[in-house]
Structure formats: structure tokens, C-alpha cells
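Anyone else keep sequences and C-alpha cells together like this?

Example one:
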Amino acid sequence: MTPLSLTLSGMSCAGCEQRIANVLGRLDGVGSVQADHRERTVRLDYDPSVVTPETISARLAGAGYAPIQVAAR
């Protein structure tokens, strides 16, 4: 698994954290997901042979959260 950290806009509460964990947790190839609305970050582990950071970002955008920075942890 490869670590990934994203900074998002649109995340404002604990409910957002749960929604993000649910949305990303359903993606094949995504392992643990930790969202923090105070820091506006999501940290996760993913399998690059199954899913790409672009796919992860697109899934977040589709849920209403705009990735503004994507970086390896």
C-alpha cells in the first residue's frame, strides 16, 4: 500500500469526515482512510495497481469535496 495525503476544500464537520471515509472506503484498492475536518486533510493508503490518485480525487470531487493539494505522505 502507498500512503497519500490530500488537502480538501468543503470539509467542515465530523459528518464530512465520515462521508469521506465512506466514499473512499468503497473504492477498490483503498485501505485505511483518516479525514480531519479541522486540518482539511485526508490521509489514506492505496494500492496503485488498483486505483490512482486521480481516481481518488475524482471520487472526492463527485462527493462535493475539492482536492486542492495531493501529495505522498
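And example two:
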Amino acid sequence: MGFRPLHDRILVRRIKEEEKTAGGIIIPDTAKEKPSEGEIVAVGSGHRAEDGSVTPLDVKAGDRVLFSKYGGTEVTIDGEELLILRESDVLGIVEAKKSKSKTKKAA
């Protein structure tokens, strides 16, 4: 992909939600909301302060994030619909759950 966001902007690929509810009801496309969760594809260099110093971003490519519902600009790059956001539009990083290994003690 030949796109690099500038400054504190990030490029995000939306993660599609399940088409069925837990009860097995299929949700039609017209009733679905756009997901507010995505994977970061590319990040800019960071926020530039008035004195010229650059503060690096807290997110990196590959992070899974939640972002504000109405933030950003939708773009199509290489036939794929992506979203350009500012880092401030990101609400948080979704971290993978660490599996707890259960060990049985011999009694």
C-alpha cells in the first residue's frame, strides 16, 4: 500500500461485526451500524508541537482499537474502504486476553 498518514493521523481498517446475535437472529445489512472497532494499518510520525518537537504516537500498526463512532474520514485505497483518524479519536486499545493455564496439584 502506498499511503502514509501525516503527523498524528492513523489509517484504520474496520473490523466487521457478527451477522448473527447470540440467540441466532440474523441482522440485515440495513439495520447494522458501522463498527467502531478496527485494526491500525499505518500511523503518522507523531504530534508536532509549536517548538518543532515531535511526540510519538501511543498506537502502532497492528493494534486493535476502539474509536469514536462519527470521527474520521472514509477513504478508498487500493479498492479497500479505510478510515483516517486522529489519534485523539481513538478511545482505547483492545488487548488480547491472556489465557490462564490451569495446573492441577497432586494431592
